[in-house]
Structure formats: structure tokens, C-alpha cells
Amino acid sequence: MPQSLQAGFLLHHQNYQESSLIIDVFTQASGRISLIAKGARQQKSQYLGLLRPFIPLNISYIGSGSLKTLSHVESGREDSILPGINTYCGFYLNELLRNFIPVEEPYPEVFLNYLSCLQQLKSSLVIEAALRTFEVELLQSIGYGLQLEFDYLTQLPIQTTGSYQYNIEQGATINQDGRILGETLIAMQQGNYTNDRQLMEAKQLMRQIIDFYLQGKHLKSRALISKLIQK
């Protein structure tokens, strides 16, 4: 039995040579790693049926370069089978991780938040709240945390009934023409959304912030989700 099995999830894969795959895996202990899965596309591959998104895996690998070799994989706990559009929300999470998590830097708290979000996405009732919470916690973990407790100009606590504008690099400040309510900022900080307006405002703000840090990169999953919603 291979040593040092690590809990992980497949984020992305691409064909490599005639029968193999290059896979991007997010592990709890080592962060994101790129691996060659030799022979993974063969009909009798030992990896058959395992290298799919949202399946908890236990993996081991060998090698010391930037592209290592998968040596063993087995299924962990039960699959996170996501219903309908939630599957594409899962792909959205994977794209965020691939864009924001550096290779071979462990982020165990992000891994646990990812696992929690997948569990919530099993229910079609909590999509927006689960995604917003994951986004906020992800940015916090990688050093891009949002200032959601105080007005950056007055240093006063965010007021529930106030209207605010949000500066991505500085934070929120009260403004009568602001497009986001204080109660929304507080909900984002606490991860507890109580109405549709909070969810809508949080979604708009998080899209602006994520786009700012993506620096012009586009997320394919967003486009797919938009097309599905329009049908």
C-alpha cells in the first residue's frame, strides 16, 4: 500500500500523449498539484471512474519536479453528486481555486471550506449563500480579505441601515448614493444571509471584486451558468 495518502479533489484534467492525463488536484496537505496519470484513458486503467470532479479522493504521487506522477488513487467518502445547475456551480469553485490558489502551497482551511461548500451544493436551496460564503472565505485565506466591519474613512462600525459604496482596495464607506446596504456587508462578514436583497447585492459586489483580482481573465463556468439560467 502506498505511503502518505492525501485527501484531495480533481479540479481539472487534460489529455496527455496517447493514453494519459495531466490532472490538477487540490489536496488538503499540499495544496494544488499537477500530476501525470499514466494510462488513465485506457479501458482497463486502475483509475477508471475515479478521476472525476467532486469525488473525494485519497492519492499519492512520486517525483520532485513541477509535474509529478500519480502513483495511487482511491475513493474517499461518498461522492458529492451535485444536482442540475449546481454541477456548474461546482465547476465555478474549481475555476476559482485554479486561478487563486498557487501551486504547491497548502491551504488546509480553503480545502475544508471547499468540502463544506460541495456538501451544501447537494441541496438546491442554498446555492447563492454557499457560493458567497466560499468566495469571501477564499479571498480572506489568500490575503485579499474584505473589510466588512468598519467604514474605512470614519472608522465607525458598519450600520445596518446605511448605504455604502465599496472600494476594493480600501473597503466600505457610507454614501447616500451607495448601492450596497450595511446589512448586506454584515451578512457577508457573518456568512448569514436572511433575504434575497442581501444575496443579490453580495453577488454583485463579489463579482466586481473577483473580476478585479482576475485581471481580465474570464471564467468559463460563469458563461455556462448564465446560458442555463436564460433557457
Which parts are unreliable, with pLDDT below 50 for 5 consecutive residues or more?
none
Number of helices: 6
**Tally of separate domains:** 2
The tally of strands reads: 8
CATH superfamily of the largest domain: Recombination protein O, C-terminal domain
How much of the sequence lies in strands comes to: 15-25%
Q: Roughly what percent helix?
A: 25-40%
What integer is the average pLDDT?
92
- In whole angstroms, the N-to-C terminal distance is 49 Å
Strand order of the biggest β-sheet: 1-2-3-5-4
Mind telling me which CATH architecture of the largest domain this is?
Up-down Bundle
Output the radius of gyration: 20 Å
Listing every helix as H and every strand as E from the N terminus to the C terminus, the arrangement reads EEEEEHHHEEEHHH
What's the CATH class of the largest domain, please?
A: Mainly Alpha
Query: What global shape is seen?
Result: elongated
In the CATH hierarchy, the third-tier topology of the largest domain is known as de novo design (two linked rop proteins)
Largest sheet: 5 strands, mixed, barrel
- The chain-level structural class is alpha+beta
